Amino acid sequence: MLTPYKTNMELLRFTTAGSVDDGKSTLIGRLLYDSKSIFEDQFEAVRKSSERKGLQHVDLSLLTDGLRSEREQGITIDVAYRYFATPKRKFIIADTPGHIQYTRNMVTGASTANLALILVDARHGVIEQTSRHSYIASLLQIPHVIVCVNKMDLVDYSEDVFNKVVEQYHQFASKLDINDIRYIPMSALNGDNVVNRSENMPWYEGASLLNTLETIHISSDYNHEDVRFPIQTVIRPHATEYHDYRGYAGRIAGGILRTGDEVTVLPSGLSSKIKSIDTFEGTITEAFVPMSVSVTLEDDIDISRGDMIVKSTSLPELSQDLDVMLCWMRATGPRPGAKYYLKHTSREVMAMIKEITYKLDINTMEKAEGDVVVKMNDMVRVRIKTTQPLMIDEYRKNRITGSLILIDEATNETVAAGTIYSLQ
Amino acid sequence: MQKYYLNHLQELEAEAIYVIREVAAQFDRPAILFSGGKDSIVVTHLARKAFWPARVPMPLIHIDTGHNFPETMVFRDKLVEDIGVQLIVGSVQEAINKGRAVEETGINASRNELQIVTLLDAIEKNKIDAAIGGARRDEEKARAKERFFSHRDDFGQWDPKNQRPELWNIFNGHKRMGEHFRVFPISNWTEMDVWNYILHENIAIPSLYFAHNRDVIYRDDAWLPVSEFTTLREGEKVENKLMRFRTLGDITITGGIESEADTLEKIVVEVAGTRSTERGNRSDDKRSDTSMEDRKRQGYF
């Protein structure tokens, strides 16, 4: 009998990026199909569509194309989220297009990912797209990368070809800030090494893609060292039973918070101790990232949304002058002197881009200084000045307290996403 | 040494609570869209957790099509009383009476699309600036790209090209007067996740989800419940089947499946082993390939 739910199943989020031709959609379709996550009516619909299009095989990529205009054009335009699960883990795929004009979509999908799948065509090796996707994964600090060397069926499943590609990527990877990179030879079209190990590549001794996804160690990826608790809202029942209860509610963004901990509230700098950590199920003694809890303090301090509770022994930087890498998300670039809303965790302040330090070529990581024109999808290193202090960490240390977005004052659009660098 | 990680349901729950709290913090007049279906019941349960020990600080909105399963209405009223929230009911019948919506005619008539204008009217009348719903991204093609915070313009319309990028769970709820947001805290939950959560938390759900005997007719690949609104086609006959519903829409358009699953555990096992999608039996989704997308553009759920 099927036991669909195990209490120790983790959640893994990964990105897939690639263009129409390199087999990414086929790979995802294969993962969903072979792990039996595709429902019969979905498969039947795709089979009929493939037939209608005059295709000889069932085009698994059709499983993943959704919106009307995409179906007409045959390409994916935005970040699409796909879901599947095995008895070992639940997976969320952030599927994005591979073209450079969708860099911002890749950045979006990568922001919460534990892992990135980088697709490489075995015949072509590392190309511009490969480097671009890898640089984005590196800039967004995705902890794990799996290089999928695909279309091995077109190179006779040659071990030599695979090794050459691995060597090529390995050389290039020295520029990346990623610690865990793995390589898997596969054929998404034929199913080799995607879910099941390939019989065509006996020389490959590693695990299949799905097996790797199921077992890769991710629980250490969060920052468990430095306590960061941004306050979202204050809970005040005002009811007879909990008359004086004042709970500071939020999601732990870092570290492990315990009852009795000596804490500092920022930006005010006042100190207190944790009196209780509460949840609907009852009071608990410790909370860690990414739990949502409500916290009470020993002292009567005025705390509101946007403040942060941290352990007094490990303070974040308090700053109004930030060094940030922005991914620009709007067609028109930043206007000089323009003011933006800046959102950082639960805090919102006004900000200005003081200076553009350089523009980054996302294909080569080369820096262009001087007068740069910023367009959509550009990565630019900037200095930002804010009206009030923010409690920041380096993005390398904490992806939640090291990230921010800029919002256009006039149109309310999110115009940029930023990762924070240390000023030291 | 303690293991400091959450299992997938705990992580999804923490994320949903975070999203619901963001709504309360960023908007003045939020509300929860309640249909009586399992997803909106789970969202309401999550809202209780999010604000505990305070009460849920926002009303439930129910769009009454007049074609609801009677069991759903009973369930709704009891839930509202149990948790102590305000209930706002938008009536499709009233909208029809006022000439705001036109009743469909014909053998396949349904009030599904009429919900759009009724919902938008209820939002405007109550000045709701954020409506929290139980939609999930795995439900249907057009929802795969939906945001947690989905911006709707002042006509209540959804334009896929205007949706804001969502990074690191930082949500931009800025808007102009007259615009509102739909927020979907369980966007990352699958049908299995919802059922496992209901089982794990022992959440009360309408009896319709459990196997029971009912008079039905077999139409369009599904067992449609016989009600006062049913018109029999030629060749159709009423049968009494042991069956249950996987999804709860209007009684006029929701098909059920033959099933013996009369407990939560049995439902979970059945859903886990099932071979067709949850919404596969919804005739409102079958009208065209892009039914959901078209309805969303007009301001539907």
Structural notes for this entry:
The complex is a heterodimer of chains A (424) and B (301). Chain A is α+β, with helices and mostly antiparallel strands. Chain A has helices at residues 24-34, 40-52, 68-73, 103-110, 128-139, 159-173, 209-215; strands at residues 10-18, 80-85, 89-97, 115-121, 144-150, 180-185, 228-230, 233-235, 247-251, 256-258, 262-266, 270-279, 282-284, 286-288, 292-297, 308-311, 317-328, 339-344, 347-360, 367-368, 379-392, 403-408, 414-421. Chain A folds into three domains: 10-215, 3-Layer(aba) Sandwich (Rossmann fold), CATH 3.40.50; 228-311, Elongation Factor Tu (Ef-tu), domain 3; 317-421, Translation factors (Elongation Factor Tu (Ef-tu), domain 3, Beta Barrel). Chain A is 17% helix and 36% strand. In chain A, the strands form four sheets. In chain A, strands 7, 8, 9, 11, 12, 13, 15 and 16 form an eight-stranded antiparallel beta sheet that branches. A six-stranded mixed beta sheet of chain A has the order 2-3-1-4-5-6, with helices on both faces. A six-stranded antiparallel barrel of chain A has the order 17-21-19-18-22-23. In chain A, strand 5, helix 6 (159-173) and strand 6 form a beta-alpha-beta unit. In chain B, the strands form two sheets. Chain B has a six-stranded mixed beta sheet with strand order 3-2-1-4-6-5, with helices on both faces. Chain B has a four-stranded antiparallel beta sheet with strand order 8-7-9-10, with no helix packed on it. Chain B has helices at residues 8-26, 38-51, 70-83, 92-97, 114-125, 191-201, 264-273, 283-286, 291-298; strands at residues 30-33, 60-64, 87-91, 130-132, 149-152, 180-183, 212-219, 222-225, 239-244, 257-258. Chain B is globular, with a radius of gyration of 19 Å. The longest helix of chain B is centred in the first third of the chain and has 19 residues, at 8-26. By secondary structure, chain B is of the alpha/beta class. Chain B has two domains: 8-194 and 290-298, HUPs (Rossmann fold), CATH 3.40.50.620; 204-282, no CATH class. The chains are: A alpha+beta (424), B alpha/beta (301). The interface between A and B is large, with 77 and 66 residues.
